[in-house]
Amino acid sequence: MTSTFPDISISTDRLVLRPFEEADIPELTAMMNDELTAAWTSVPIPYTHADARRWIAGHAPAERVQGRGIVFAVDELLTHRLVGSVHLMNTNWHALSTEVGYVVAPWARGEGYAAESVLATAHWLFHDQKFERLELRTAAGNTASQQVAQKIGCVSEGVLRNALIVRSRTEDGGWTDIRTDLIVWGLLPEDLEDAPPVEYSAG
Ligand SMILES: CC(C)(COP(=O)(O)OP(=O)(O)OC[C@H]1O[C@@H](n2cnc3c(N)ncnc32)[C@H](O)[C@@H]1OP(=O)(O)O)[C@@H](O)C(=O)NCCC(=O)NCCS
Hints:
Blueprint: E1 10-11, E2 15-18, H1 25-32, H2 35-40, H3 49-65, E3 70-76, E4 82-92, E5 97-104, H4 113-128, E6 133-139, H5 143-151, E7 155-169, E8 175-187, E9 201-202
Parallel strand pairs: 5-6
Antiparallel strand pairs: 1-2, 1-9, 2-3, 3-4, 4-5, 6-8, 7-8
The structure holds coenzyme A (COA).
């Protein structure tokens, strides 16, 4: 039998992490059509409504059902606006280890939403799911993402040289692939022991 994460939502002080719904298509499309997301992730450029629909109806739920991970839409609690996405992937159920990826909508950045959503996910993963490791991989030049990793207490474990293709703007306004190093970060349950407690609830 395939191991899977439960179909749950996680609430924090300011955010709700929950499954994507069809109604998120316009906001997800807007969020993904962004310079930083295009540069540092492998999303389609441009990101269309059809891409969002395929993600929400197909790939995102399949990640959970097929045991690879779980995809959360992240809402602002007060406004119900979609502010981001957190994706657990490449889960190893024997090692109880998984990897996290995240995006925050451009207009919602700098508020600590990435750190808050990933930290709550980590607490749920370690306490409720009894996982032993959360891994994060950032491109060497992705300073904002490295700030998030450091803020939540991840330890920088090493560099995979030349391991990643990212994208950079060309003079004519297009995009070109460039090869870069990848920094591997790890978070273990004990890394969170000295961190301030995070209020979260899952159900
Ligand atoms: C990475 C990303 C998710 C961060 O989202 P966010 O909600 O702004 O993150 P937070 O507010 O929790 O923290 C961001 C931190 O990075 C800092 N930061 C942001 N841009 C920065 C930059 N260019 N240089 C240095 N620090 C930067 C912020 O000041 C903040 O640190 P602080 O709280 O100590 O002030 C967002 O920039 C994003 O969606 N980027 C595109 C997709 C992406 O790169 N995903 C990660 C792939 S590994």
